[in-house]
Design a protein that fits this description.
elongated
Length: 72
């Protein structure tokens, strides 16, 4: 049987939830994480737009592409 090694983020979350593992706390953490990563994504997309890597033409092209992969 393999041993699971937790990274520092996982260790911190486990320690935090050891004190209050309620459903309400879980919802709060999910909301904070969602907001954090949404902000990072928005900043990155703004950077791509400002540098010209992403523009309306590219967005239009992506809209018509089939990006799913076959899971077979």
């Amino acid at each position: 049987m393999e041993t699971t090694v937790f990274n520092p983020v996982q260790q911190h979350l486990l320690t935090m939830f050891a004190f209050d593992g309620s459903e309400e706390r879980l919802k709060e953490v999910k909301a904070v994480l969602y907001q954090h990563f949404q902000k990072k994504m928005d900043e990155r997309l703004d950077e791509l737009w400002e540098t010209g890597v992403l523009d309306q033409k590219k967005l239009d092209e992506l809209r018509t592409k089939h990006l799913r992969t076959d899971l077979k």
